[in-house]
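Researcher: Next sequence.
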Amino acid sequence: MGAHHGAGGLGHDEVIMPGLRGLDATPEESAEMAVMFRNFQTLSRRVETLPNGIRTVTTSSDPDVMAALVSHVTGMIARVEDGRDPQVFVQSPTLDVFFARGAGIETDIAVTEAGIVVTQTATDPDLVAALQIHAAEVSDMAARGMAAVHDRMMSRSGN
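Model: Next structure:
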């Protein structure tokens, strides 16, 4: 077996995806992320940048992936509201801002025929910037899967 680089040797294995585990992530949460990454080609995403946040519409052509998506999004928003950072090994630093200042984010979630619609706004400019950066990161992951995570991690580590 070859060595895996990134995330302390946990980041670049697209079969078992160990980088999706976290210090406080449940096996079910990690499995949901794996479903989405393995099936990212089924995802479709639109982002509207608002002056004070974002509005996203994300859907999947696969009902199982859509179920994982809805569970993941609602679960992560609940975690931010509760201040329970899952500390997933490949987690973006933008989430650190959310977990530090989550009380400042106003969130509206709706599951419609169009997909899961999430509107998040804030008055704190740092939170607004983090929301917009994270929305772009998620769009990149929806378009390119784990390659997007890998590229982001390698650019941060200087490799």
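Model: The radius of gyration is 15 Å. The helical segments are 27-38, 63-82, 94-101, 125-144, 146-157.
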